[in-house]
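User: Reviewer 2 asked us to show a designed sequence for the structure in our supplementary figure. I'm pasting the structure tokens here. Could you produce the per-position amino acids so we can include them in the response letter?
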């Protein structure tokens, strides 16, 4: 049981290519099912790790990597099939690249591995992105546009928040 949270993250990572292929094939019903399962694993893995007291260094890396692979891939796939604008896909990719650059730059220049724990803005950004994807896949046109702008705002704001935190080592 102590490995369940990491298994959920690994399952999300394994599901990502399949979800992307389904989007590119235009199989909305199956995308909805698999993406919803992936979103649930994201909610469950952290909750279970904290609840069971089995947070791990591997989980602290695996969970955000699974999120980034899934969401970045899905946003690019949705842009490829013209379901969302490319600028939004680039914003999501840019935010994730920025976080990875901060982590790599810190390690490279200071020779010290610093954690970049999830922030409330990072969590809200991920939740917003997942809800937006579900709305796009479900073709809920009436809420897609407001969710697009909310997702863009949360993604950009969380990127700025991570940038601010990277400049202030005492906050990380």
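Assistant: Here is a per-position design you can include in the supplement:
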């Amino acid at each position: 049981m102590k490995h369940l949270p990491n298994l959920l993250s690994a399952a999300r990572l394994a599901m990502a290519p399949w979800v992307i292929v389904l989007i590119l094939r235009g199989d909305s019903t199956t995308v909805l099912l698999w993406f919803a399962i992936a979103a649930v694993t994201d909610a469950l893995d952290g909750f279970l790790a904290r609840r069971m007291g089995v947070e791990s260094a591997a989980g602290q890396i695996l969970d955000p990597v699974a999120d980034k692979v899934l969401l970045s891939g899905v946003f690019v796939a949705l842009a490829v099939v013209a379901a969302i604008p490319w600028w939004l896909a680039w914003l999501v990719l840019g935010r994730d690249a920025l976080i990875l650059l901060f982590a790599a730059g810190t390690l490279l220049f200071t020779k010290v591995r610093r954690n970049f724990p999830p922030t409330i803005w990072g969590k809200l950004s991920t939740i917003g992105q997942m809800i937006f994807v579900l709305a796009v896949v479900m073709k809920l046109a009436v809420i897609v546009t407001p969710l697009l702008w909310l997702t863009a705002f949360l993604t950009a704001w969380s990127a700025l928040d991570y940038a601010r935190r990277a400049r202030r080592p005492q906050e990380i």
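For the response letter, you might also mention the following. The CA atoms of residues 54 and 123 lie 20 Å apart. The domain at 4-171 is CATH 1.20.120.1760 (Four Helix Bundle (Hemerythrin (Met), subunit A)).
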